[in-house]
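User: Quick one: structure for sequence A, then sequence B.

Assistant: Sequence A:
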Amino acid sequence: MSRGAVWRAGFACAVACVAIAASTEAGPPFLVRAEFPLAECADLLDDLGEIQKQLTTTLRLPSAREPVHIVLFRDEATYREYGKTHFPRVAYRRALYVKRAGAGTVYAFRGPELAVDLRHEATHGVLHASLPMVPLWLDEGLAEYFEVPPAARISANPHLKSVKWNLRLGAVPRLARLEARQDVSDMNAGDYRDAWAWVHFLLNGPPEAHDELVRFLDDIARGAAAGQLSRRLESRLGGAEVRLAEHFKGF
């Protein structure tokens, strides 16, 4: 869908538009258009700029190649109607990130879960604006990690309790299994939780694990053969799954 088509298709009545960027170094900004005054979610929009900055610096991503459009509907009914018309084959989701030719677009609606939804989908947007591809498990794991408020990301994500409980029972998330998932429809709730667990480990665990993630993404950005991160971690760390289990004992 072209940029012009996005605006013409559902936003003749749009009442607000704003561009957001964390810094000039972070690359093109989010371009937000809404059917309601954006002052209602000013703090949330500030969060998006911070997410862009953190993703860019923490993962050492190249500058975004394009902006990320964000379309906010006034209510769920309007959002549903738009989705039925323009994405009839896509199963209903509370928010949606779509990337076809050109820049990607996040669609969401004003409601009690807007903050979580927007942080999640905007994370997808930044990743795909900066990289030619993102492995599905990593794409979703990062979105799960950044969807909560900043203060909750390390030790208060809803996934943490479940991950720790499973580890006590000897159920260690298998990265190779997650890497086999090729479509979001193949992922269940446990996969999202496990993807989050690996991202948490990669961002907050051993420095060499984080370094290998950065190298992996750099290979993707350069078009080099990145391979499977599970194999790279095993080679770099030795016993990566054991290291992950040890990592969560501290939380």
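Sequence B:
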Amino acid sequence: MMSVIEIKSTEGKVLFAFESEDNTIKKTLEEAVDQGVNLSNADLECADLSNAYLSDANLRDANLNYADLRGAVLRGADLEGALLSNADLSNADLEGADLEGALLRDAKLRYANLRGAYLEGALLRGADLRYTYLRGASF
């Protein structure tokens, strides 16, 4: 069944819309990233984005609180100022991602790859960092 899913900003502005057979927010977001859409301030709270391929995505200041990002590929993604409280980033690949000033309170980062990630000013209070790969990460 064909359906249209819109990605909106936290202010309600449509940033991207995509129509596809058996559409999901994950499919729509991956298409937006493939097209190089600026997704700054995207409202993706509680989104199921597990195993999504989002390398080099511009998700600056996006709301990803409570999002399921298990196994997601976010290499080189711009997540500066993103809200990731209570997000599940277990096994996610965040190599080289910019997480400057990101809010990662109570986020699950078990087994995540943060090699070379930029975390200056990121709030990690309560984050689960067990087995997280942090070589070359900048705090």
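The chain has two domains: 2-34, 39-139. The chain has one helix and two strands.

User: Thanks, that's what I needed.
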